[in-house]
Amino acid sequence: MLRRRLLPALQALVRTTDPNAPVTEMLPVLDDAFAVRVLDLAIRMGETMLVAGAPASDVTSSIVRVAGMYGLDPVHVDVTYNSITVAHHRSGAERPVTLMRVVRGSAPDHARLQRLQALLADIREGLGLEAATTRLRGIRRTPFRFSAPVVVIAQALLAVGVAVMFGGNWLVISLSFFAATAAAVTQFGLGRARVPFFFSQIAGAFVLTVVAAASPLLALTGWEAAAAVRPSVVVASGIVLMLAGLTVVGAAQDAIDGFALTAMGRLLELTTHTVGVVLGILAGLETARVIGVGMAPPDESLPLGPLPAQFLGAALIAVAVTVFNGAGMRIIVVSVLLSVVAWLGYTATTAVGFDAAAASGAGAFAGSFVGIVAAYRLHVPSVAITTAAILPLVPGAAVFRGLLGIVESGDSPATLLTGFSTLAGAGTVGIALAVGASLGIYLGQPVRASLSSVTRSRARVRA
How would residue 299 be classed by pLDDT, with cut points 50, 70 and 90? Predict the structure, then answer.
């Protein structure tokens, strides 16, 4: 008996495998019709995620996971800015099964992302294909959580949050609310008329700047608060509003992940829409100068308000962003806490001597790192809470100060150079925000994976 067991083991150590022996592998019994149904479910989930604002890496991994749970492995996924292609080729099959869907536009909807995340978790727990397809169909048909008036009010609340951060009085806060409401209503009307978003950005920034330029006329009323009105705060709050929907973090993350086409598409969209804001502000400043209400460029950057007002303003911005992105109460609460964390990181690094760009990157890193860990524990999309956390760090005041210096430079080369250098500094802060947020996400992913493995181990022990 011992000899029978020992000799085959020794022969296996000495001899190599026979190359003529038939190669066998375990293959699931799947027909093409079933494969098409699985790929259709996976690609539709990926399309919905990409439209709702998820990064390309999350879309790709979700498609692969869904297909793998129903027996399709390997699956090849190609995600670009406006299309998704999925293919599955079984060993021995004459041709692969390939599906493609065109992604038309982007409409951030973080509540939909949360539902898709829950559906993906249920699929991993064994949800049937037919039930998953039915749930996905319901998710895709679910309308946006909030009505248009609520979204407009949320956008105005974002501007109020910026004004609070800069220590504005009640009149400055009211002007910021009114100017942001006027800009948001203008953009909403142009959107209903199917005007390209680039021109909507120009129109909204123009309305915002004209309202801010006319605000010093309130001094004629004799109100004491009118003497302390700073038009720069009103415009800065509007700039943060205009840039709130731009996916700078998603574009940076796609570039780092190697999704070059998706990253370039998002960066081009980001650049185009930012140029629209710049053109609208320039047009508004020139119009204000012609009608005699021009603004003189400030000599220094706008000072922030008291520290409690800064944190209150950051929390208001986070609430506003999550509401007009369609998030639920859980995402709103988490986003508010993360905005406080991000602003705490910014103020702490500023206090020890870091410049604005480095401090902004540190704040974005703190918010995104804590955010991706909290996203796993609380079952919310990481992109939703990360976006809201870093938005208070957007340099809206610096952008406006640079543009104002360029417009009002006249024959002064020094003022013109100061304007360009201020814009360059604002661009540096934007890059620091993208890098800091992306670094926090990548360093937080191993921590999230460790927490996931610990949770699964505890679940097995309990079972």
Answer: low
